[in-house]
Amino acid sequence: MLPDFRIRQRDYLLEISRAITEQLDLATVLTRILQSTAELLAGQAGLIVLREAEGRWVIRAHYGIPEPFLDYFKPLLADIPEHGDPKRFALPEVNRRLRATTETASLGLLHEVALPMVARDEVVGLIYIFRGYPTAFTANDRNLLASFANQAAIAVHNARLYQQTAAEKRRLDAILDSSADGILIMDTGHHIERFNRALARMTGWNASEALGRTHADVIQWAQRQPGPDLAQAEAGGWPLLKDPAPLYVEGDLLRRDGGYLPAGITYAPLFDREGRLVNMIANVRDITKFREAEALKSTFISIISHELRTPVSLIKGYAETLRREDARWDAEVVRDSLAVIDEEADRLAALIDNLLDASRLQAGALRLNMAEVALDKLAERLVEKFRTQTSAHQLTADFPPNFPPIIGDEARLTQVLSNLVSNAIKYSSGGQITVHGTAGPGQVTISVSDQGPGIAAPDLPHVFERFYRADSEQTKRVKGTGLGLFLAKAVVEAHGGRIWVESPAGRGATFFFTLPADLPRGS
Ligand code: ADP
Question: Measuring CA to CA, which residue among 379, 499, 504, 366 is closest to residue 433?
Fold first, then answer.
């Protein structure tokens, strides 16, 4: 038969190991350990102090000591020796201070025993047990406490590992969820285990719907660049080949709603320590912007080469003709030819200016030289100038008297208005063109209207985009780069105004823009 206290001791140890295995909440485990230890050693109170980050010592569990008295024990914590070799971890000074402390706090605690808690050769904390009656702790008590202290150390170690893993998992979850790229993690059978928010947005599948489905259910290509997709690469041995490179597949992903998304997916395998494939991670990138940039680049090249070639070949043709030594040109032919060369050179210069403006805009550097501008006078001058260039149109400027001046960049505003009037002439075969001005509270509105065929509804939202030209008969007939309205919009917006177009079917096009204006003086 075991002696009574041995049975109790065994029961307590069992109780503690149960607490350690069942409970991962550190505070609960420590409290249970402390309570069992104190009871077994017939102590009235106890403390567990743990070594935290940066070597600070903090009371993590207390038994039999009311909360307000804990402060008396805090000075003790500063004296705890730096942990070196745990086997030689001595606490004489601490014990002396402890005695003084229990006396000061008049807790009536007369004897104490304190031992380090050692796990994996590291002191993770200290355990103190106090007695309130005059029986000192024996060597046997100390041995017993040592085994409890080490149990507690294991619990602390485990709980910390668990906390670290949980924190790491939370961090990983946050990274996955906040990633702008779509991320899909699947098992070796292609069953989806993780599906982040960005991917839900891209594919139209909810994470909860995607989980448990297979990769092939969710990732379907409407169209794919040459090269193997995941299934084909796996049939060829990927990723179990020696030194497999990540697999990249690009194309148009079929969205759940039937639409598609230009995307590039990089697949990477995840192996365990034994080299077994455990997961496959797919990183999905939305390449819409990249495709747009590519498309813009090719539009740019085709427009520019066309627009540059025409004036250059005209200039060259006329110049070559004039230089022919076998021909004598009369004065009129020479004058007309030189006029064409002059106009075409102007067109080239204007085109280059527009391109420079567009690239400056892209770099975010459109500078305005602000001064007072009389828009009514400016419009009249422009109308006057354009009248000489067309006989098919009637041009009028229609401004109320005392039209308020505004503060703006006159050269840039002339560019905007010229572009709108020249478009009105270019895109209508004849009729009335009116530049109209109205002054409202705080702003002026200028409009340019024509009686041409107007702009079809599908083109309306796009005419201010860079390089956009409507797909219409009258647009095909005239030259252009699709930069004029893009630049006009940038200039108006840089002034703090707004630009838009209205084109009711069959009733021409009217472009409007507003500019901020001071309230009429004296009002
Ligand atoms: P560009 O005239 O060089 O093509 P813009 O940016 O000035 O470039 O105009 C963009 C497109 O808007 C034109 O190609 C044309 O299709 C359309 N557009 C502009 N103004 C008019 C208008 N007054 N009537 C009809 N279509 C117009």
Answer: 379
Query: Taking a C-beta distance cutoff of 8 angstroms, is the pair 9, 40 a contact?
Result: yes
Q: Give residues with Cβ within 8 angstroms of 272, minimum separation 6.
A: 278
Classify 375 as helix, strand or coil: helix
Which of 310, 415, 423, 429 is the best mutation target for the ligand 1 pocket, counting ligand atoms within 8 Å of the beta carbon and taking the most?
423
The more confidently predicted of residues 4 and 33 is: 33
Give the other-Cβ count within 10 Å of 56's Cβ.
10
Residue nearest to atom 7 of ligand 1 (CA): 484
Pairwise pLDDT comparison (257 vs 306), residue with the higher score: 257
Task: Report which residue type is found at 172.
Answer: L
* Span 274-323, pLDDT tens digits: 999 999 999 999 999 999 888 878 877 877 777 788 889 999 999 999 99
DSSP class per residue in 88-137: G---HHHHHHHHHHHHHTT----EEEEEEEEETTEEEEEEEEEESSS-PP
Contacts of residue 211, defined as CB under 8 A and 6 or more positions apart, other chains included, come to 192, 193, 194, 195
Q: How far is the CA of 114 from the centre of ligand 1 (A)?
A: 88
Its sign, for the CA torsion 332, 335, 341, 345, is negative
- For atom 16 of ligand 1, the residue with the nearest CA is 470
128 CB near ligand 1 (under 6 Å): no
Q: How far is the CA of 480 from the centre of ligand 1 (A)?
A: 8
How high is the pLDDT of residue 522?
41
Percent of the chain with pLDDT over 90: 49
Q: What does the alpha-carbon distance between residue 119 and residue 125 come to, in Å, rounded to a whole number?
A: 9
- Residue 281, classified by CB atoms within 10 Å of its CB into exposed (0-12), middle (13-18) or buried (19+), is middle
Secondary structure (DSSP) of 227-250: S--HHHHHHTTTTSSSSPPPEEEE
Taking the C-alpha atoms of residue 52 and residue 293, their distance in angstroms, rounded to an integer, is 53
- Residue 514 φ then ψ, to 5°: -110, 155
Whether 455 is in the pocket of ligand 1, judged by its Cβ within 6 Å, is yes
Whether the CB of 282 sits within 6 Å of ligand 1: no
Rounded mean pLDDT, 386-401: 94
